[in-house]
Every structure is written in structure tokens, then in C-alpha cells.
């Protein structure tokens, strides 16, 4: 097994990249034409970070979404989902060194929300 710091540094870099891109997306007043691409990049970084944690920490059989699906709202407006995803990503970053399971859970929940966001373009 790879030591925690290697996993954390790779995961941290991906999480920080996702956080920065999502913050920029939420700060714009008009949607950039690359909206879908940016959203895809954020989701890809979150998925990469969760995969690293899963592989190196043995979470292959752990699916935190299963426990949360019952309480999740069926359809949030896109901006609310993005803000909640940002909150979960930020929380994951904070817990990365102290509670890796909670960090992973937050990433998986954020990924679920990001995947549910529909493009606002007509």
C-alpha cells in the first residue's frame, strides 16, 4: 500500500483543481460558452481524486451514495447543486488528512450532484 501522504498529495491536487474551476464557474455573471467543458473537467478531477483514494485505501466496495440516496432531493436547480458540490469538495479537502473516509464520501456525493447538473443552454 502507498503511504498516505502520496495518496493525499495526488488527491489534494485534483480536489484543489476542481475547487478552483468550480469557484470560477460560480463567480461568472454570464455563462461561458465552455460551461459544459468546465463542468466536465470539475467532475473528472473529483472522480480522479475519489478513484485514487478508493484504490489506495481499499474503498472499492464502499459506496456512500447508497446510504444517502433516500434523503437526496430529486432535482435541485443547477446553481444550488454547484454550490453544494463546492461545499462538499471544500469539506473533502479539509478532511483529507484527518478523516479519509469522510473525505471520500464528500467527493462521491459532490460527483453525484455534478453529474445531475444539466446544461442551462437552450
DSSP, total strands: 0
Rounded mean pLDDT is 82
The 3D shape can be described as: elongated
Distance between the termini: 48 Å
Name the beta content range. Answer: under 5%
Q: What radius of gyration results from the CA coordinates?
A: 14 Å
Helix segment tally: 5
Which range best describes the helical content: under 10%, 10-25%, 25-40%, 40-55%, 55-70% or over 70%?
Answer: over 70%
| Sheet with the most strands, sense and barrel status | none
Walkthrough of the structure:
With 122 residues, the protein is mainly α. Helices cover 71% and strands 0% of the residues. The chain has helices spanning 4-27, 35-57, 64-68, 78-95, 100-116. Helix 2 (35-57) runs antiparallel to helix 5 (100-116). The longest helix is centred in the N-terminal third of the chain and has 24 residues, at 4-27.
Which short descriptors sum up this protein?
122 residues; mainly alpha; 0% strand
Q: What layout of secondary structure does this protein have?
A:
Elements: H1 4-27, H2 35-57, H3 64-68, H4 78-95, H5 100-116
Quick synopsis:
The chain is mostly helical. It has helices at about 5-25, 35-55, 65-70, 80-95, 100-115.
Amino acid at each position: 500500500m502507498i503511504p498516505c501522504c502520496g495518496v493525499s498529495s495526488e488527491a489534494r491536487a485534483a480536489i484543489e483543481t476542481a475547487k478552483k474551476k468550480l469557484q470560477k464557474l460560480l463567480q461568472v455573471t454570464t455563462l461561458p460558452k465552455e460551461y459544459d467543458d468546465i463542468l466536465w473537467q470539475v467532475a473528472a478531477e473529483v472522480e480522479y481524486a475519489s478513484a485514487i483514494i478508493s484504490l489506495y485505501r481499499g474503498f472499492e466496495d464502499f459506496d456512500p451514495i447508497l446510504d444517502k440516496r433516500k434523503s437526496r432531493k430529486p432535482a435541485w436547480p443547477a446553481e444550488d447543486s454547484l454550490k453544494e458540490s463546492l461545499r462538499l469538495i471544500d469539506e473533502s479537502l479539509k478532511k483529507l488528512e484527518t478523516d479519509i473516509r469522510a473525505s471520500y464520501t464528500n467527493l462521491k456525493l459532490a460527483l453525484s450532484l455534478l453529474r445531475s447538473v444539466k446544461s442551462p443552454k437552450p
